[in-house]
Amino acid sequence: MGVSSPVGIRWFRHAGGMTPIRLDEPVGRYLSFDEREEIAILTSQDVGVREIARRLGRDPGTISRELRRNAATRGGKPVYRAGVAQWKAQQAAKRPKVAKMVKNPRLRDYVQDRLAGQLQHEDGTVVSGPRTPVWKGLNKPHRGDRKWSIAWSPEQISNRLPLDFPDDESMRISHEAIYQSLYIEGRGALKRELVAALRTRRALRKPRARSKSSPHGHVTEEVVISQRPAEAADRAVPGQWEGDLIIGTGRSAIGTVVERSSRSILLVHLPRLKGWRDTPRVKNGPALSGYGAEAMNLALQASMTRLPLQLRQTLTWDRGTELAAHADFTHATGTKVFFANPHSPWQRPTNENTNGVLRQYFPKGTDLSRWEAHDLESVALALNNRPRKVLGFRTPAEVFAEQLESIQNGSVATTD
Predict the structure, then answer these.
(1) What digits encode the pLDDT tens for the residues 233-266?
(2) How far is CA 301 from the centre of its chain?
(3) Which of 96, 107, 370, 404 lies 20 to 30 Å from 281, alpha-carbon distance?
(4) Which residues neighbour 166 within 8 Å (Cβ) at sequence distance 6 or greater?
């Protein structure tokens, strides 16, 4: 490139992690990167301007201006390098215009509120969440707390705008424009620290990795996923759920249950039981951490039985032993439990995706027992009111309300 490493790194960071130099072929009178490489080679061989122009089929004036305007001057003496010349040409060709969110404060406020707005209880009081350090331009903390916020993705914001403002064309923006406003310096009206509200919280853009689950084997043939009714695999039929745990430090956990059709979320509060860390551990005794089989069964029953029976037909779980008492759970609730195959997280895709989203609020390496049931309800409320692309950017709460109304109109809903 002909520039020092610090300069290259600075260019890369200013571009938000995306390459700042385009090597695609221009059209018409503009020189291409290949032509600039040829100019650099011929110039280093002391070939004259007219000879270079003849070989490239260009006007000598074009070559002369190129050498004068786009040569590198860092060493004091002009030296022509193709990479530097390409970057200089692109900078000179820019036609900057005022970003949409700069001209439209109402649009900017809408985007900022959906990105970094504060969580609230149903009565409107603000949920403070964990205390977090000031963002310093780094990636998300390793196994540390993150600030709680509304945290819609740019795509969710972009596609929700036409639903919230169907007659106002000024309230439109692409998700890429939001990303560029966050990541590229001088592009838009959003502060760079708002990237901390994104799910990944990456300081620079890069591909995303997927996590894998660690299943256990304690399942009988009657409850493997292959025995699950065919309608449970069809997302058109409501009442089919997927579940798992997210684990924190000190053997703390939160139960996560997601409805496959509406993507509605239930968070199961799993407080530690009396005597945890105060009494000696008993071999084969009850688990006091809060997600032993007995405690998990009772907590999951309390959460699921609040729903009409028609909206809790099946539950597909990971192979964790926390649901070893699944027969008792089915007897008490009427909800049939099935278990995914080993090493097959894709058989519970909705729950796996949801757990990734929840890590924005409950990062790995943090103590999840700090949060009370009403805190979990606030997070679930925020996520259930977040628009989803798969739902046509309606919210899970809206779709679930439609399902509930349909059932109530068809028959009397029961919860026992």
Answers:
(1) 888 889 999 999 999 988 889 999 999 999 999 9
(2) 30
(3) 370
(4) none
Query: What mean pLDDT is reported for the chain?
Result: 83
Residue 100: exposed, middle, or buried by beta-carbon count in 10 A (0-12, 13-18, 19+)? Answer: middle
CA distance linking residue 259 with residue 314, whole number of Å: 10
**111-125 core/surface letters (b: 16 or more CB in 10 A; e: else):** bbebbbbebeeeeee
Q: Is the pLDDT of residue 331 over 80?
A: yes
Residue 161: φ, ψ to 5°: -55, -45
Q: Is 173's pLDDT higher than 90?
A: yes
Residue 51 DSSP one-character state:
H
Whole-angstrom distance, CA of residue 24 vs CA of residue 68:
23
| H-helix segments, 15-126 | 33-44, 49-56, 60-69, 82-93, 100-103, 105-116
Residue 407, judged by CB atoms within 10 A of its CB (0-12, 13-18, 19+), counts as: middle
Indicate the DSSP class of residue 125. P
Check residue 356 and give its pLDDT: 93
**Parallel, antiparallel, or unpaired for β 240-247 and 265-269?**
unpaired
41-57 residues labelled b (16+ CB within 10 A) or e (exposed): ebbeeeeebeebbeebe
Residue 212: pLDDT over 50? no
Give the span between the Cα atoms of 214 and 314, in whole angstroms: 22
The pair phi, psi for residue 338, each rounded to 5°, is -135, 155
Residue 246's φ and ψ, nearest 5 degrees, are: -110, 135
Q: How far apart are CA 346 and CA 211, in angstroms?
A: 11
Question: Distance (Å, rounded) from C-alpha 388 to C-alpha 383?
Answer: 10
Rg (alpha carbons) of the chain, rounded to whole number = 28
Q: How far is CA 332 from CA 300, 325, 413, 416, in A?
A: 11, 11, 17, 9
Q: What is the mean pLDDT of residues 100-126?
A: 90
Task: Say which residue, 151 or 234, is predicted with more confidence.
Answer: 151
Q: Residue 200: what pLDDT?
A: 75
pTM higher than the cut 0.70: no
Burial 358-370 (b: 16+ CB within 10 A, else e): bbbbbbeebebbe
Q: Cα–Cα distance between 240 and 232 in angstroms, integer?
A: 6
In this structure, which long-range contacts are made by residues 181-186, counting pairs with CB atoms below 8 Å and at least 24 apart in sequence?
Answer: 181/99, 181/101, 182/16, 182/154, 183/15, 183/16, 183/17, 183/18, 184/14, 184/15, 184/16, 184/18, 185/14, 185/16
* HSE-up of residue 292 (Cα within 13 Å, Cβ side): 12
**Model pLDDT, residue 289:** 62
